[in-house]
Description:
Elements: H1 9-34, H2 44-64, E1 67-73, E2 76-82, E3 91-96, E4 105-109, E5 117-120, E6 130-132
Antiparallel strand pairs: 1-2, 2-5, 3-4, 3-6
Amino acid sequence: MKTSWYREPWAWLVFILPFTAVVAGIATYIIANTDADTLVVGDYYKKGKSINLEVGKVKAAQKLGMRFALQLVDNELVIKPTGIEKVFPLLNINFIHPTLEARDFYLALTPDGNGYFRHQFDKDVSGLSLIHI
């Protein structure tokens, strides 16, 4: 006696495997198109040229002996210029998060009476950030 096709386990195995692949493909397509990747730069050539310019600035700062000591205690950032006797009227600081562009921010600090640059953060600053001075 022959049984119906839907009572055979091998028939379901043959149908379920391709169906699972189709569902996974649709899910992958939806995820790829809804969550934009902010790390990809549209004009990579222009970005590469600006990186070379930044390397030149870093080398010039090293040649002048510019160094800064950073200290973060109780959400207060203190930046002390060391290694150079030059007085800076303004210090531009970029905090760049490695993966989340929304957590990037910029500070423009002026020195206090001791020549230190201070900033009190309103909320807790935690996590990894690349700091450009």
